[in-house]
Amino acid sequence: MEDAASRAPHPTAGYCCPGEPHAIDRVTHLARLAAFYPACLTCSHRDDTAGLSALQLQLRAEVERRHASPAQWTAEGLLLPGRGRFAGDIIHRMAMAVAAELWQHDPPSPPQVLVGHDGHWSTADFVPTACQALAWAGCQAVEIGAVSAPTAALAVAWARASAALWMVRDDSSPGARRIALWRADGRPSSSPGALDSVAAASKRTPSRPKRGGGGRTRFSPDEPYLATFDGLFHALRPLVFVLDTDCEPLARSCRQLTSASGCRMVRAGGHQGPRPASGPGVLDSLRRDVVAEGAHFGMWIDGAGEACQLVDQRGELVPPQQLLVLLARFACRERRGAAVVVEPTVDATTRNMLAQAGANVCRGSSTRQGMHDAMVATGAAIGGGNGRLWFAGPPPLPDALLATSVLLAVLSESDRTLSEVVDTACGNASAS
Fold this sequence. Notes:
Blueprint: H1 4-7, H2 26-34, H3 54-67, E1 72-74, E2 77-80, H4 88-103, E3 112-117, H5 121-124, H6 126-136, E4 140-146, H7 149-159, E5 163-169, E6 177-183, E7 187-188, H8 195-202, E8 215-218, H9 222-227, E9 240-245, H10 248-259, E10 264-267, H11 281-293, E11 297-301, E12 308-311, E13 317-318, H12 320-334, E14 339-342, H13 348-356, E15 360-363, H14 368-378, E16 382-384, E17 389-391, E18 397-398, H15 400-411, H16 418-426
Helix pairs in contact: 4-6, 4-8, 12-16
């Protein structure tokens, strides 16, 4: 006999097959999953499988596994798909390829490779998997744990390691992850560039070097990383700023730095409930939080700890190129004629503002490796233009926390608001 619940109409809200205009009920949703309906492979509700039998779930898992996009080499690393189980074999191949590249130079001792991740649970399994492959290939694998990308880059140079492998969540698709690589001295590997030979090596059948096995150790790079901020957190105004980031290692470092100063960091999301995970709504939420908190500014930072977006005290977005001009002016006061490396997309207006500030404007690259090399070649004090702000090293690296720290120092020079400081630096019509 049917009960009242089974006779009730099935809700349609939230169920709509990709590419189809009409909503469907949950019974139809489950029936299509069981029948391997093609649109289900790209549906955001394909994990809603309660009600399917064990056999149906097993068959669906196999279909999902076959459909999962293969790992792809991009300009900045290896991109892993967001579907399917953890791609241990892919990680193993990349780690072996890195080891093979390092052994080609016939080092006098086993190459030392740092291995870390962004602190999220979905990337944590990367560390033991990569370390195991590196040790098997005769390398000394060093676990550095949950760190930001700038910390990983600095750790390579500080520890005089041969390379670093680091995994971070990627915004290209839900659940996607990216593996980044740095070589000696914290130089990032990009394509075109040093990443290409690793990508080629990963496609060959991995073979173990004719050497003994390597080893595994641990090292925390937090202390040497935080030491780079010495001098920036003294004599600051009691500034309040809202931080919006998924990079928990960076948030941890920021909290530690501000705790010893008069500044106060507020994590985003306290006034509007849970904030969006990605998309334009992220900045909308940050803008509301800045106004509600009465903060001096807000800073959105990506999951890697590299790119940032600034919001002023009114909740208005500050264009990334204006932030570059503001911080470059600060750098040029210390060193007149300091080189500033700009990405190719930086417009002529911004380049002119930098030149008027006394900077020697130098052309950079669209890749991390290219920007790093340009910073080294020119001895630049700062660089960037479209979200990533590079600072002189060693090693030169894009660091959103360092950008935030320098901004705090700039604002502490007067009682003016951020919008007034930006207007003055950029020569806006509204400047007072």
